């Protein structure tokens, strides 16, 4: 007879800590949030936290890494089902954020966490790895949509990916500063405008 697992796996524990940390960060601020508060919000002891992460910074890096990994999986899945740029953008607009990781549901918290980690110079290489992964994803999407529209070679996918990612991060920062004049869909609207400006077909 197989044993019934009564203890949560490490993945289960990490997921609960990620969710709890996001709530505590939004309520108390990233700098002011304590490990004790995060552990308590997840229903764990301080010891349970330290059995998974050495510090709050390590937890944040893990959350950012998990977000990038999940974003890549979701985007590639959408791209496989929606080859045209317009269809892909529409799919992104209608994506159910409630099913995403905490940073997927809260782009502003994602940006705040990046800025928090970037203040520590020794942590910047960790951020750089995630940035490169995000750039590659966007470049792959650009290349796929260009090929499907017969415009391969018309644009440099890598450079265009870097521009689009900077544009996305810029809109996130602007929304953090002035949400009244920066709608949540600003980036996707900008992509649609660029698509039309480059003469890329929506079909």
Automatic annotation (TrEMBL):
<dbReference type="InterPro" id="IPR050109">
    <property type="entry name" value="HTH-type_TetR-like_transc_reg"/>
</dbReference>
<protein>
    <submittedName>
        <fullName>TetR/AcrR family transcriptional regulator</fullName>
    </submittedName>
</protein>
<dbReference type="GO" id="GO:0000976">
    <property type="term" value="F:transcription cis-regulatory region binding"/>
</dbReference>
<keyword id="KW-0238">DNA-binding</keyword>
<dbReference type="InterPro" id="IPR036271">
    <property type="entry name" value="Tet_transcr_reg_TetR-rel_C_sf"/>
</dbReference>
<dbReference type="GO" id="GO:0003700">
    <property type="term" value="F:DNA-binding transcription factor activity"/>
</dbReference>
<dbReference type="InterPro" id="IPR001647">
    <property type="entry name" value="HTH_TetR"/>
</dbReference>
<feature type="DNA-binding region" description="H-T-H motif">
    <location>
        <begin position="34"/>
        <end position="53"/>
    </location>
</feature>
<dbReference type="InterPro" id="IPR009057">
    <property type="entry name" value="Homeodomain-like_sf"/>
</dbReference>
<dbReference type="Pfam" id="PF00440">
    <property type="entry name" value="TetR_N"/>
</dbReference>
<feature type="domain" description="HTH tetR-type">
    <location>
        <begin position="11"/>
        <end position="71"/>
    </location>
</feature>
